[in-house]
Structure formats: structure tokens, C-alpha cells
Design goal:
- The complex is a heterotrimer of chains A (315), B (430) and C (177).
- Helices cover 37% and strands 14% of the residues of chain A.
- Chain A is built from eleven helices and nine strands.
- A five-stranded parallel sheet of chain A has the order 7-6-5-8-9.
- The longest helix of chain A is centred in the C-terminal third of the chain and has 20 residues, at 286-305.
- Chain B is of the alpha/beta class.
- Chain B has eleven helices and 19 strands.
- Chain B has a five-stranded antiparallel sheet with strand order 5-16-17-18-19, covered by helices on one side. In chain B, strands 9-10-13-14-15 form a five-stranded parallel sheet.
- In chain B, helix 4 crosses helix 6, helix 6 (207-224) packs parallel to helix 7 and helix 7 packs parallel to helix 9 (284-296).
- The chains are: A alpha/beta (315), B alpha/beta (430), C alpha/beta (177).
- Chain A binds chain B through residues 85-87, 105, 107-110, 112-113, 116-117, 129-133, 171, 174, 197-200, 202-203, and chain B through 193-204, 206, 270-272, 312, 315-320.
- The complex binds zinc ion.
- Chain A: InterPro entries: Asp/Orn_carbamoyltranf_P-bd, Asp/Orn_carbamoylTrfase, Asp/Orn_carbamoylTrfase_sf, Asp_carbamoyltransf, Asp_carbamoyltransf_Asp/Orn-bd.
């Protein structure tokens, strides 16, 4: 595997391999190991054409714990915000000797373009592209679910997950549907019909418009961020009505099974898609998701960068 | 000095009959002539099909304004290479062709290039803004003699503006060529709305946005008893509406592009904007419906929607890229591949849909006269048994945004004659 | 291919190593056995069982994965990370015996010493190997050797253990020259 652009790039073995690696790495970091020499001398560029402090910091921490050199290109002040083409940026990265580029971009498919066009030879890691995918987030979500509910199994067979909210614009939802399905979990998408894409019927997921009827059936409730500006685009009448039907509040929390957990990729709109008391409740693993993010991203970097460059395998 | 004379020897006419053709000056002087013209240039076209010169009703020549992407001259060369003897210059240039000055300029540039006829299309509304009518009458009366009006690239969305335009052009038997795209349903749209767009996270361009406008426009056309041409139909639903309208006797014609006869929205999975086009590539079901409609005459013509773009506007992220594809040099091969080789259309059908019918819609009287004695000698010759590999690096167009790069296509256009003058000889533009 | 050690040979070698470890450290009390996955970890378990039998008390045993510390990662296909488990007492001030199957260039042990350094500061680190095939590239030696096997660099040594391979044996492949 050279790039991680989409969950579709992963086989079941690949996905479990990343989760297992992350498990070992998280144990090492529990043992207070700050730094591993694994990627010493390798250069990783964080190319963030769209603001996302948390994802950037998570990748940066992961790269540094593996002793890679990290260069940050952030949206503000970087050339891509000044209209420099993706091609020119890629050629610059190539000249800098980047072994991997972690790219966050507002345009769906930008990481794939970077990978396909041979402007640079390094690995491309999609850290969220437009409304397409966010594979590292899905992997850390699966890691978190497995840790809590996996009962020692390698995959997530039989686990039921509800993904609730703005599926239409969510790259987190797309990657999660693919990965959870790959790992054997069953996904129910819960959203107002306006926030489900035309064509969603072809996804390996059940569709529901009724959150209350789903909550008691699932092991995991994954809430998606709903952006305020969706209101002006007529996706729902107002925030109050959205919360009434699709917000996770204490009354709805009571409908969930005792073992069920609550997740959110962040950043949260407290009071809109999730009530503050729910976000901070004992059932919420939202803070833990952030911590797991570093181990999972270390595992991704390890899997993509540590071995011999693909095609040069001998032995 | 005597007139130039050519004899095309050994080819077959669109109806399949083997005939020799004698061209004297700018006209066809004999068909099935005994080849005893001592002073004629004999061209052996054995095995080839001789077609009346192809007429494109939908071409973006980019001049004036974007001469870095294409010029009237370079598009003329691309046209000659593809077997065309007439192009129709869409109005979305910079400045917009919404007055007599611009259309006459484009017309004269075409004449100066001299490789084919360039018929300017006038904008329906000033600046393509969809608000105030442009100087339609002045353009009709100009040297360019404009009969086709279109805001192509933009839809004439306001129903009142569309109604008035349809009414106004009746004065000189003009036609409104509509780019059918409901703007509110296609804000920020990137590709066909469906399974693929859902997966790729690219904003959808729903079929209904095209069909709703076609439906409205055929009803308006019926109401004011005018003439409508629907540009680049792409959906099975659009075909159904046009079929219904024709059955009702509404004066509507329609075109399909070569790329919509072959390519589907699956190609967007590459995120390569070479496949980004407006209207977007649709599904396999739509492709089949379009082929059937072109075969049964519901869709009247093939038009290229040739849309050159510089590499910068294609070597980028999908959503940043421009819409459009080259079409002139591959059009006839794509039609052979999708329509002739599949048995859906005869060469006679191709001649109608790519020469006679588009010339009639545009009222290009000097074009589309067919292969008859006395007709203007606009001719293209294709060898359907040969194949070629599309190479974007050696196209005649100034741009290289062909979606068919690397495709092996059937049918090599070997010769084009415009007014009796050879503009393409053995595949080389004169 | 030739058999360098048979099952009884391996068994005798491990018993001897167990005795040498006890002798050198004056008992099992302060010892931690750390096997290097995968086969070193199984050897560590066997040695710990032998020591327990001799001493009549349990000896601390764990395993130490050194993958993330290797300096040859880029030269081979990707390696899966194996578990690391350190006895809860930790390694601080203890006598750690690293256990591996084949001792070759010394780079694995170098990586193991680095990995160990991240975990704590033992009083001493010793090395036990089933087979020493020579060709060291680093100034590292073994304290306990099951058998010295002179080999040429082009040969390969395969250790099979019943826990993984269903049979105990050490094979040498390729021609000596
Ligand atoms: Zn158009």
C-alpha cells in the first residue's frame, strides 16, 4: 500500500493490521515512551489547505513520536490559499523531498489527484477531502469501538452503529460506512431526508429518519457535526427543529442500551446535534477518540512508510 | 487559368453505392463520372465512405477573449481534420457575441481562415445574464446572417425572457438553442447526481434540472408557435419529453454530443477533470437512450460542444476545473463507434444527422446540400476500416483536453473538401 | 539442507542455558527473561519453565518487540508489530536476560537494547541465544549460547519450534563455501 486515499484502498487484512498496530503502539505510549526511532530521517509534510487544527496536531504528534521530520503547510500563509495550483504545490513538495504528504483539502478528490498525477513520488495520506472521505478518522473510530465493544475480536462483526446527522456533507460518514461494513459491523444512517445523498440506497447501510426508533437497537451512536449554514440552504427549518428530531439529549440517552457508547468526530456544536450533558456523560468516548487518533495515525504512517517502498520487495 | 478539378475514385456514397465524384471549382459537377478528366487530380478513396461535409451546430471557438485556449483559425483546422465544413461559434466569448459587431468579427475571422464556414451564434440575452434581450435583429441582419441564438453555458432561465425570445425570432425564422439547466437545482454542481456522486462527495447535477427546462420550453414553444433547439440532451427523461413534443407537432429539434453517446459518470471516479463537462456525463441507461433517440430521429443531430480549455484549468482539483471537452477531431469516429458499428445507424443516417439536418436547423443554405450534382462541393471522406489512437499531444486544436486520449477509435477522416478546395489531404490539414 | 540441531539437542541446550543463567545470577530472584518475538518469546517461556522447576519458584518472563527500533525496516517488506509485555514489576534495577533464536549481525539485539532503554534502566542486560551463526556487524556478544554454528553468509538458518511449526529442529539451508 502506497497511499491512503479512501477506505476502499484497504482490504480487511489491511484494516485489521492498522488497528492491531495501533493497539500495540497505544500500549507503548501508555508505558510513557515518548519517541520511537522508526521513521528517523523521513520527511512528512502536513498540507492543510483547509483549517483543521485537531487533525493536523494529531498527525503531527504521530509523526514526531515516530521521529519523522514534520513540515507544516497550513492554509493561512501557504501558497495554495493564494491560488497556486495543486500541481505547483506538489512539485514544491517533491523538491523538498517529502516522503509523505498528509493532505486536508476542501475539494473532494484532491488527494487522489495528488497521488495519480505523478507530480511527486511520496505517499499521499488523505486527512479529509471535501465531502468525500476522511479515512484516518474512520480508522480511529473503529479502533475506539473495538476497544470498548470488540470483546477481543479482530473485527467488528455483529456490532450495530448508528451514524446520525448531516450524512450528505460528511466525509466522516462516507469513510465510516465503508470501514464499518468492511469490518462486519452493521450501519444505520439516521438523518432528515434532505441530508442524505441521492444514491445513498447503494451504500451498505440501513436508512432511517427516526432517531428514537434506532437508539435502543444500537451499540454505538456516532453523532455528526451539523453546520449552522445548512439552514440557509434549506436543509432544515431551524436549529431548534433539528435538535428536536435529531439531537442527542438526555431523554434520548435514556433510550440507549446500557453498554452503548456515544461518539463524535468533533468539533461539536453543543446544544445542536448533541446536548452538553450527553457529550460529557460517562457514555461518551469523545475525548478518548482524540487520544486514540494519535496511535491510529502512527499506525498509518508506520504501515505506509516503514517498509520497503512497494515494488522493491525482495526476500 | 482553368478551375481545379478533383476526382474521388473508388469510394462509396452514404447509401452504399459505389460512385466516383468529380469536383470542378466549388461544385460537384458529376457523380459516377467516367474518369476521363485528363487535368483532374485523381484521389483514390477505395474502401472509404464519402459524406457531405459535416456541419457542427455547437462549437466553442474561444475567440475573442481566450485565444490561449483556441482561435477561430485553430478551431477551423481542428474542424477540417475532423471532416467538418461548417462550425457554429457559440456566443459565450469575451466580449459576448450579443451584438452585430462581435458576430461580424467572428464571421470574418472564419472567412480569413478559409478552411470552413464559421457561422456565429448570437447571445439571447445581453452578456448572457438572462435578463435583457440582446440585439437579436441586428445580428440577424448583419453580414453574419445569424439565425441561431443561444446563451449556451447559461440557461435562459426566466420563463418570460424565454417566451419573448421565442416570439421575437419568428420574425426571421430563427431558432433558440437552449442550454437546459435549471440554475437553482444545480448550484455548485459538479457531476451527474446519483450513486457515483454520492460516493465521490461531488455535488450532483440532477437529470431533472435538464428535463424540467426542456419540458417548460417545449410547452412555451408550442404556445407561441416558434422554433426551439435543445442543446446537448443527456438524459433518458429528456429524450422522452422531446419524443412527446414531436408527437404533438411542436417545432423542436435536439442534439446529442459524441461524448454523451459513449462516456458515463463512472469516469468521475478518477477525479480527473478531463471528464468534467456541462451537462455532465450520465449513466449507461442514459447513454443507451440517447443512442436509440439519435437512431430513431427523436434527437435530430450530433453536435460536438467542442470546448477547448488550457491545461491549467484541467490539471487541478475537480471542483476548481473548467467544464468542457474537445470534440471536433474525434466526433465522426465516436459516431461510427457508437452508432454505425453497433448497427444503430447507416452512413446515410450519419450524413443526415451530421450534415443535412444541422445545416437545416441553422439555415446554413450553402451547407448540407448533400452529394448531388450541382451542390456546393463540401465533402468529407472517412475510411471506416482503419483505426487510430487519439493523442492529445498532436491535435490541431490549441488545447489538448480530449477525454479520449489513448483511445483506439475506428474511422479515419482522410480528406475534407470545402467549396471544392481540399482542406484535408491524406489526413493532413492543408 | 541439513539438520544442525534435533529436538533432543534443543532441549539439552535450553536446560544448559537455564542452569548457566541461574549460576551466573546466583538464583532467579532478580531475573527477568524477555523473549524477542516470535520464536525468542517461546524460548523464553521454555527457559522460564525449566528455571521454575529447578528453583521451585516462578521467574519473571515477558516479551519485547523491537520492530519499531529496527534500522533495516526500509530494506524489507513491512513487518507486523508484535506485542510487548513487560512484567508488572518493571525492569528497573533488575537483571534482564534477552532471549532470541538466532544470533547473526547483532542488529536485532542493538534494536532490543534501544527498546529496553525506552522502558527503564535494568541493573544488567544479558543475552541468551539458541544458535550463534557468527558474522557479527556490531560489537555485541552473547552470554549464553545453545550452539555455535559456523555458516557462510549466503546460507540461512531456520529454527522450528513445536509451538509454531509443530517440530523442534534447527536447519541450515544453502551451500557452505
Ligand atoms: Zn451548453
Amino acid at each position: 500500500m502506497r497511499h491512503l486515499l479512501s477506505i476502499n484502498d484497504l482490504s480487511l487484512t489491511d484494516a485489521i493490521g492498522i488497528l492491531d498496530t495501533a493497539t500495540e503502539l497505544s500500549r507503548i505510549s501508555d508505558g510513557q515512551v515518548k519517541k520511537l526511532p522508526t521513521l528517523r530521517g523521513r520527511t512528512i509534510v502536513n498540507l492543510f489547505a483547509e483549517d483543521s487544527t485537531r487533525t493536523r496536531i494529531s498527525f503531527e504528534a504521530a509523526a514526531k513520536r515516530l521521529s519523522a521530520d514534520v513540515i507544516n503547510f497550513s492554509a493561512k500563509g501557504s501558497s495554495i490559499s493564494k491560488g497556486e495550483s495543486l500541481k505547483d504545490t506538489a512539485m514544491t513538495l517533491q523538491a523538498m523531498g517529502a516522503d509523505a504528504v498528509v493532505i486536508r483539502h476542501g475539494a473532494s478528490g484532491a488527494p487522489q489527484r495528488l497521488a495519480d498525477l505523478e507530480w511527486m513520488t511520496g505517499s499521499v495520506i488523505n486527512a479529509g477531502d471535501g465531502t468525500h472521505e476522511h479515512p484516518s478518522q474512520a480508522l480511529l473510530d473503529a479502533f475506539t469501538i473495538r476497544k470498548h465493544l470488540g470483546k477481543g475480536a479482530a473485527d467488528l462483526a455483529g456490532i450495530k452503529v448508528a451514524i446520525v446527522g448531516d450524512v450528505l456533507h460528511s466525509r466522516v460518514a462516507r469513510s465510516n460506512v465503508l470501514l464499518l461494513n468492511l469490518l462486519g459491523a452493521h450501519v444505520t444512517l439516521v438523518a432528515p431526508p434532505t441530508l442524505l445523498p441521492v444514491g445513498v440506497e447503494s451504500w451498505p447501510a440501513t436508512i432511517s429518519y427516526d432517531l428514537d426508533s434506532v437508539l435502543s437497537q444500537v451499540d454505538v451512536v456516532m453523532m455528526l457535526r451539523v453546520q449552522q449554514e445548512r439552514m440557509s440552504d434549506l436543509f432544515f427549518p431551524n436549529a431548534r427543529e433539528y435538535s428536536r428530531y435529531f439531537g442527542l439529549n438526555l431523554q434520548r440517552l435514556a433510550l440507549m442500551q446500557p453498554h452503548a457508547i456515544i461518539m463524535h468526530p468533533g468539533p461539536m456544536n453543543r446544544g445542536l446535534e448533541i446536548a452538553a450533558e450527553v457529550a460529557d456523560s460517562a457514555r461518551s468516548v469523545i475525548v478518548e477518540q482524540v487520544a486514540n487518533g494519535v496511535s491510529v495515525r502512527m499506525a498509518i504512517l508506520y504501515v505506509l512508510l516503514a517498509g520497503a517502498p512497494s515494488g522493491s520487495e525482495s526476500n | 487559368m482553368s478551375e481545379t478539378k478533383f476526382v474521388l475514385k473508388g469510394g462509396s456514397l452514404p447509401d452504399g453505392s459505389m460512385r466516383n465524384i468529380l469536383i470542378v471549382g466549388d461544385s460537384i459537377s458529376a457523380i459516377d463520372a467516367t474518369v476521363n478528366e485528363a487535368d483532374a487530380t485523381i484521389i483514390d478513396v477505395t474502401g472509404s465512405v464519402i459524406l457531405p461535409g459535416l456541419v457542427d451546430l455547437h462549437t466553442h471557438l474561444r475567440e475573442p477573449g481566450r485565444e490561449d485556449a483556441e482561435t477561430v483559425e485553430s478551431a477551423s483546422r481542428a474542424g477540417a481534420k475532423g471532416g467538418f465544413t461548417a462550425l457554429s461559434a457559440m456566443a459565450n466569448t469575451s466580449p459576448v457575441a450579443d451584438n452585430a459587431g462581435v458576430v461580424e468579427q467572428v464571421y470574418r475571422l472564419g472567412q480569413a481562415a478559409g478552411l470552413l464556414d464559421v457561422f456565429p451564434i448570437g447571445a439571447v440575452t445581453q452578456g448572457l445574464k438572462g435578463e435583457a434581450l440582446s440585439e437579436i435583429g441586428a445580428m440577424a441582419d448583419s453580414v453574419a446572417r445569424v439565425r441561431v441564438f443561444s446563451d449556451d453555458g447559461m440557461c435562459v432561465f426566466d420563463p418570460l425572457v424565454m417566451r419573448r425570445a421565442l416570439e421575437y425570432i419568428k420574425k426571421f425564422d430563427g431558432v433558440i438553442a437552449q442550454h437546459a439547466q435549471e440554475p437553482r437545482l444545480t448550484v455548485g454542481s459538479q457531476m451527474n447526481e446519483g450513486e457515483i456522486s454520492a460516493r465521490l462527495g461531488l455535488r450532483g447535477w440532477p437529470a431533472i434540472a435538464e428535463e424540467a427546462i426542456i419540458a417548460r420550453d417545449v410547452l412555451l414553444t408550442d404556445h407561441v408557435q416558434s422554433r426551439l433547439h435543445v442543446c446537448h440532451v443527456t438524459t433518458a427523461g429528456g429524450v422522452e419529453i422531446i419524443r412527446w413534443a414531436k408527437a404533438r407537432g411542436i417545432n423542436v429539434t435536439a442534439e446529442v454530443t459524441p461524448h454523451h453517446l459513449l462516456l458515463t459518470d463512472e469516469l468521475a471516479s478518477t477525479y480527473d477533470p478531463i471528464f468534467k463537462v456541462n451537462p455532465p456525463l450520465r449513466t449507461e441507461k442514459d447513454v443507451q437512450a440517447l443512442r436509440e433517440a439519435l437512431a430513431d430521429g427523436t434527437i435530430d443531430i450530433v453536435a460536438t460542444d467542442h470546448a477547448p480549455h488550457t491545461m491549467e484549468s484541467k490539471e487541478c482539483e475537480w471542483q476548481e476545473a473548467s467544464f468542457g471537452m474537445l470534440g471536433l477531431e474525434t466526433a465522426l469516429s465516436i459516431v461510427q463507434k457508437t452508432m454505425v458499428d453497433t448497427g444503430l445507424l447507416t452512413w446515410q443516417g450519419v450524413a443526415t444527422r451530421m450534415s443535412t439536418a444541422p445545416a437545416a436547423i441553422g439555415a446554413y443554405f450553402d451547407q448540407g446540400q448533400g452529394l448531388v450534382v450541382g451542390a456546393r462541393a463540401h465533402i468529407s471522406v472517412i475510411d471506416p476500416s482503419k483505426t487510430w489512437i487519439v493523442d492529445r499531444d498532436i491535435v490541431q486544436s490549441r488545447s489538448r483536453n480530449t477525454p479520449f486520449h489513448g483511445y483506439e477509435l475506428p474511422g479515419v477522416v482522410t480528406h475534407t473538401f470545402f467549396k471544392g478546395k481540399a482542406t484535408l489531404i491524406d489526413g493532413v490539414v492543408a | 539442507m541439513s539438520v544442525a540441531l534435533s529436538a533432543p539437542d534443543i532441549s539439552r541446550a535450553l536446560i544448559r542455558i537455564s542452569h548457566e543463567i541461574l549460576e551466573r545470577n546466583q538464583g532467579a530472584e532478580n531475573i527477568i527473561l524477555l523473549g524477542i518475538p516470535t520464536r525468542g518469546a517461546h524460548l523464553a517461556t521454555r527457559i522460564s519453565q525449566t528455571i521454575s522447576t529447578i528453583e521451585g519458584r516462578d521467574v519473571a518472563v515477558g516479551m519485547l518487540d523491537i520492530t519499531m527500533h529496527r534500522d533495516d525496516l526500509r530494506m524489507r517488506p513491512l513487518r507486523a508489530i508484535m506485542p510487548t509485555s513487560i512484567p508488572s514489576s518493571g525492569i528497573e534495577g533488575r537483571d534482564v536476560v534477552l532471549i532470541d533464536d538466532v544470533f547473526f549481525s547483532g542488529r536485532t539485539i542493538r534494536a532490543a537494547l534501544d527498546a529496553l532503554g525506552e522502558i527503564g534502566r535494568p541493573r544488567s542486560v544479558q543475552l541468551a541465544v539458541l544458535v550463534d551463526r557468527g558474522h557479527r556487524e556490531l560489537p555485541i556478544r552473547a552470554d549464553y549460547v545453545g550452539k555455535n554454528l559456523p555458516t557462510s553468509p549466503t546460507q540461512s538458518v531456520r529454527v522450528h519450534l513445536t509451538e509454531i511449526d509443530g517440530i523442534d529442529e534447527v536447519l541450515i539451508e544453502g551451500e557452505s563455501n
